[in-house]
Prior knowledge:
By secondary structure, chain A is of the alpha/beta class. Chain A is 32% helix and 18% strand. Chain A is built from 17 helices and 22 strands.
Amino acid sequence: MSTTDLFFSSDSVRTAQPLRYAQSVELPGPLRLEKGGELPAVTVVYETYGKLNEAGDNAVLVCHALSGDSHVARHTPDDDPGWWDIVLGPGKVIDTDRYFVICPNLLGGCRGTTGPGSINPATGRPYGQDFPTITIGDMVTVQRMLLDKLGIRQLRAVIGGSMGGHVAMTWAIRHPDRVRGCIAVATSARLTSQALAFDVVGRNAILRDPWFHGGQYYDKPTKPEVGLALARMIGHITYLSREAMQEKFEANRYQPREVPVEFEKKFSVGSYLGYQGKRFVERFDANSYITLTMAMDLFDLGGTVEELTATLRPARCRWLVISFSSDWLFPPEQSQDIVEALVANDIPVSYCNVTSRCGHDAFLLEDDLDRYGALIRDFLHHLDPDTAQPVRADLHGPKSIFHQQRIDYDHILNLIPPQASVLDLGCGRGSLLARLRARGHRRLVGVDIDEQAIVAAVGRGLDVVQADLNHGLRFFRDGQFDYVVLSLTLQAILDVEGVMREMLRVGRQGIVSFPNFGYHKIRRMVAEEGRSPKTAGQLHYDWWNTPNRRFFSILDFEEFCRDRQIRISRQIYLDTESGVEVTTDPNRNADLAIFVLSR
Amino acid sequence: MSTTDLFFSSDSVRTAQPLRYAQSVELPGPLRLEKGGELPAVTVVYETYGKLNEAGDNAVLVCHALSGDSHVARHTPDDDPGWWDIVLGPGKVIDTDRYFVICPNLLGGCRGTTGPGSINPATGRPYGQDFPTITIGDMVTVQRMLLDKLGIRQLRAVIGGSMGGHVAMTWAIRHPDRVRGCIAVATSARLTSQALAFDVVGRNAILRDPWFHGGQYYDKPTKPEVGLALARMIGHITYLSREAMQEKFEANRYQPREVPVEFEKKFSVGSYLGYQGKRFVERFDANSYITLTMAMDLFDLGGTVEELTATLRPARCRWLVISFSSDWLFPPEQSQDIVEALVANDIPVSYCNVTSRCGHDAFLLEDDLDRYGALIRDFLHHLDPDTAQPVRADLHGPKSIFHQQRIDYDHILNLIPPQASVLDLGCGRGSLLARLRARGHRRLVGVDIDEQAIVAAVGRGLDVVQADLNHGLRFFRDGQFDYVVLSLTLQAILDVEGVMREMLRVGRQGIVSFPNFGYHKIRRMVAEEGRSPKTAGQLHYDWWNTPNRRFFSILDFEEFCRDRQIRISRQIYLDTESGVEVTTDPNRNADLAIFVLSR
């Protein structure tokens, strides 16, 4: 957890500083709410960063999480730090020299925008628990009204993490015509039952606090501080990963900090939680906590991928979905469900599961900023309609079987007709896709297991999804692509049968290239020298460290296809050493084979 | 979660039934406590099952978890079910026709044994929070005094899960002369910071409940029921896995049950937790909850494997350690630390990480009983000094390279001198180890990644540890074994270098057998047919489904050893088809090679 002090994690100990740069607007009511009821009028507090350009197309809407507010980052060097200072600012990931950023405090919050602590005009006292049940959709409605008022018709992107991700996704679904890109970080289509359960316990702690008084505690000397602190303590545990907690508290398990709180202080982690709970109570309202967590708990884009696919159908902007490997509150599988539903709708999406030890809080911390920040920055960059998208030189591209160039790409490109949609399995940094894009193909998707490859491919403006081919291509519909390419990858795959089956389910045609272990030089190494084959290029590994695990020849592969009624419509055999196509006895004379397959 | 009803999970809704078969003894005081203070006298309530045999050596001590009690199982068909009814009884895993089982309610509990709800003789009223801090060690002291009183000198085994595992391990450390076997299930050397944090929040909920009255609530009309219920709700979430909660609550997320509780009932999972919390309050005492969780939180066998190794040094009985793959409260890595420390001390141990979807509660549920039950039953069986341990026929043993028998075993056995200690990597069901044991070897340990193989090997009375060779042999000390065997396994290993390095770190000698891909028949397949090699026996797989991923010859392996200064002290080359040793041109004429290696 790098530089973070024991008692300062994410936004948890920020106090309720005055919002020096916040602005406020009154939205005319009544606002009809999705779960019934209405609000007579709504105040929205928001902050902006940077300048709206002349075209009015550089606005980025930032949606805060449960305990956030409008203060994303400092406006001036002497300003208080915001909850996403590391991400937003001049020259940063969300570059305020380039984008006009707006972040409103969400409806139901307690930092200026109308919420349960606001005065109910009907009674002249705070709403308290009379504040109606609100939804993420209601929050979006209020944000939309704000943008209308500010004259912002078009958003370059909407971005949010956790509950902010719920808001961002709802924007993309409700107002696809106004959003160019949606960035959903550490979020989900709906909470897991486990996450929901923690919320329920937290709310119960508040609701059953004897000083809660049915929510009308505002004028009381004692407030439901114990209940709210308990809720926050539970929440805080769920925001951290188990590993992160070990790192934070194991070395000094029995050395609690001296903190002026009335909670148990026997253990280091206990003094930390007690302190976090106490500080949270100073800046957050118990009724808002109930209102906002309930909105999050009611958020539901579907309990199955099928339902989710239907819900996301209108969300036709470009998407970037980011999860964190150690996030157990919003686990990566939930992001993968979102990606699956987007892909099923042919909505362009990139997805990366960032390797992290920081749990759900990772998106607020600096530890993994090199990757999630790069993804966000590059994705935003490529949303710019004026951004030239040159095909960058691929310095780290894979190698030919005997040489440094991928000469199979030329042949594969020739096999794919113009305009065809293509899925590249094991796309790496996107070399083949970039060439296809340069040739004018529109619907291009890559899949790779490697995080760095995904980050690099997103950096090129490609749509790539991080996934393990061995676990199936569940992301994709039957026949979704004209061509599915598996270039020099099959030899490293565990589940050959599964990947081949999936490839020909998802693609109308499949193109497979592989090194031929029947090649005469390889045969000679085995037969004459009695040694494991090793060459330059693709086969430059030793027997004990090669990532290749399948050693097969053209004959082997033909038999494999024949046994499974896979139709071979085209075969290209290459001798990559001499750079020529092979026509006679390819199993002996070709070192590389390209097959075009179908069912 | 198979047959479990939504509202009946593990022991959670058992009510405080009268303990019809419980017995009670008074232990003379004062009992001096480890953290200071003393108890003037202690009452212990316990139940027994089965009969103590004449030798007095069939007693099994069962240690309950946090919310358990002395009532492990029903005594008669019409008795109330106990918390481990599925495991204990006539003919069951802990067979009461065979063993004499005793289970006392633990010190500090609230089901008969002295605890905070007992009358403090000094004041004439319940101890409440005047009850001293107790430790797991104090609980063991009380159990030991009870056994002394009952005349039970020797325990066949002590067994416990979760906190019960803490008690069982403490027995093995403190009284190794009285314990033949220790079975530690779903437990840890100390709590993770995350688990500790949840306990702290639960205690805070109780301590800050306004009806707690500093623990003197026994004569009050209102008790700290909300706090205790909140603590139980938090605990309950941590006992279940995320998957288990999905299965339980996803289908009916918005259909809460009608339950007569004052907690939030908006969601299915909420009504469940509210109900669980309410029922728990009916049978459990808030002060006991604080006392017992604190004892668990203070339990600490060491924060590092080094410390743990020192702590476990005296614990010289046989061990069985069981974890559950989806247990995130007591995660498998913690059991692996215990195993590592035991192995470092040359203490015999078997370890299995049971694949389960049930989380921490798995050991109380029927879902995975086929595996954890078999492990416990067989381990207990082989603790019997009278149990003959015949070498069972190995019906599922691995195959020779070309044939159905493992002819390499005979040669490997001949290479190992009598009495040598042996570690078998990739031991499978323990065929080689069983032959070594039959020959009189004492110190034999097996490692395998496969759960079923581990269960089978424990069934043969062997000491086997479930681990992935590719992740290193951290379990073992430098030079811990005379011989480390890697028979017909290297060809399936990803991290060849790492495994070879570890092998020669842990063993003074290493014995490696592998199929030779330089064999003339294989060369012929490659060279003449241009096909991936496939034979009967060990190489009966196809190129696309073989678990083998390393294809190397004797020459390749010799070079590998030479490059790493690995000393080859003996080479045996076999032609397993004709069953003869090969002496000329082995790289061409042998299909199987055995190397004896050292540094």
